[in-house]
Amino acid sequence: MKKAVTSRAEKGGDGLYQNRLLSYLDKQCPFKIIQIQPIRNQVYIVESENDEFILKGFSSYHRYKLQEAYTASLKNEGFSKTYSFLDDVKDPPLSFDQFFFGCMEYIPPSDEAFSYEEEKNRKEGLALLDDYHLVSAQLVQRYRTLLPQYKQLEKWQERTAQFIHHLPLIKYFVQKEMINEFLHWADWSIKGMNNETKFFQQGKQVILHGDVAHHNFLRAKDNHLYLLDFDLISVGAIQVDYLQYANRILPSIHWSFDELAQLAQLKPFLKEKGFLYALAFPTDIFREWNRAVRERLYGNPVKMRHILDLTVNHFQERQQFILKLKQEAES
Questions:
Q1: pLDDT of res. 143
Q2: How buried is 148 (Cβ within 10 angstroms: 0-12 exposed, 13-18 middle, 19+ buried)?
Q3: How far apart, in whole angstroms, are the C-alpha atoms of residue 207 and residue 205?
Q4: Which of 55, 123, 160, 274 could form a disulfide with 44 if both were Cys (CB 3.0 to 4.6 A apart)?
Q5: CB-CB contact of 29 with 88 (8 Å)
Q6: Which domain of life is it from (predicted)?
Q7: What is the pTM of this model?
Q8: 8 pLDDT more than 60
Q9: CATH value of 13-105 in 3.40.50.720, 3.30.200.20, 3.40.30.110, 3.10.150.10
Q10: Cis amide linkage into residue 92, ω under 30° from 0
Q11: Domain range annotation of the chain
Q12: Alpha carbon distance 66, 244 (integer Å)
């Protein structure tokens, strides 16, 4: 159910910001804006007299133009399962409160949201990622100078350092024994990855999506699956996206190595030591706790319930999974 944001008199917080944004759009767009609904930070569904579209804010003009160009390149090279930027409002770009806003195609969602809980979704998501890689591999040379080279090891070393820095607060929520185990897994993983650096440098070079969380796959009303949000794209070896995909689905398959091996795209990598070491890194634990401390989410019971569930309730299954990885790496 959509909630219109139309009252110019509403004051305070997000409501005031949205009303100011609505007023700005009224003046800048060549068509009448009827309502605006926030989806997440700096992303809105906008209903105009013509149609609905997505309004997304970018932190710089460069980021906005890069996203616009990249999605157009994907479409031109044959990857159709994503959104397009709209031409209605283009030059000059919409600029509001230090953000540059792009207008993007609205893809009507299915009543059934995409989730990694279902096997058919996990397989279909991988198949769509395959299709994306086939096209993005053709764009590497064109975008190489515009995109960073992905550095997996450096990223996780930094994430570990942040987690250790936040330990004085995290210790109030998580048992010392669990924390020590997480740090042990991270240490084993990073040392192993250091010995297998070639694995993350060699292989097919693609433009990595970089954020294959379930919410970046959209089940559309026509039942087709779409890939969204290219904010974290970089150049790197194809296995990096597969590693992140494996990390994202593991909680849904109860940390089962055997179920992971049943996915055709992942099976060959499970024979690579570098991939096995990387799978042991508690990236989700470190990511969520670092964010909780950084954004002070520890005062939000709903958000903390999710983080504690991930940390505590999955611990034993994850522990058995790590033991299996060590056995495979040593065999």
A1: 97
A2: exposed
A3: 7
A4: 55
A5: yes
A6: Bacteria
A7: 0.91
A8: no
A9: 3.30.200.20
A10: yes
A11: 13-105, 119-330
A12: 23
